[in-house]
Amino acid sequence: MMRFYRLLFSLVLFQLVFTGCGGLDHGRGLDEASIQRARAAYRDRVSLVSVQPQDDDTGDKWPTEQPSDRAGSFLDVVVAEMIAIGPGMIVQGLGHRYAGDHKTAGQLMRVGGVGIGLSGLSFGLVAGGREISEDWIGDAISGAGYGIGVIGVGYYLSAWFYDIYDTPRAVRSGGRSPPDSPFVDSLDFIGGE
């Protein structure tokens, strides 16, 4: 194991020394004109006090992109499915995000977040119920925690399985949202759209 760390350290050191990333105090490897323009822009910046926020900008929305007119190829479908299965297990909706369907991806992320939140609440109730007392009150709190945990896992897995199931459609449609998706709409009670 120590050999692995030595190899990793020497690779990182090689990367830093021989690619021009020797430090932050100089711009070796960067375009000098770009650095000068960035410094000039920093000096001439507008004061933050004088900037007025726009009324319609809330700052918490995902970027909206127009769907593509080009349908995805077989390779795109395979890559999107692998993303939906692998990293999509941790963050639901990544397959749809890769396909360009940002609306459904946002809904699936919210549904998965509700599942994680309910599972965390469940863990706290089960652990806390056992610590409160050994009689029926502790058992009741732990039982409620188990019930909430089942609901949380259901939400989490529903979002993940729907991402896996619907990603090929999203890729083939060029990132268009499904015309009518009552399943995701019914689970996404937090969504504002």
Descriptive key words:
193 residues, extended, 63% helix, mainly alpha
Characterize the structure shown.
The chain has helices spanning 2-18, 32-43, 74-85, 94-99, 102-132, 136-172, 182-187. The chain has 193 residues and is mainly α. It has a domain at 74-184. It is extended.
Topology:
Blueprint: H1 2-18, H2 32-43, H3 74-85, H4 94-99, H5 102-132, H6 136-172, H7 182-187
Helix pairs in contact: 3-6, 5-6
Number of helices: 7
Number of strands: 0
What structural class results from the helix and strand content?
A: mainly alpha
Low-confidence stretches are 21-27, 47-51
Largest beta-sheet details = none
State the end-to-end CA separation. 51 Å
Mean pLDDT: 75
Strand content: under 5%
Secondary-structure element series: HHHHHHH
Radius of gyration: 25 Å
> Helix share of residues?
55-70%
Q: What's the shape?
A: extended
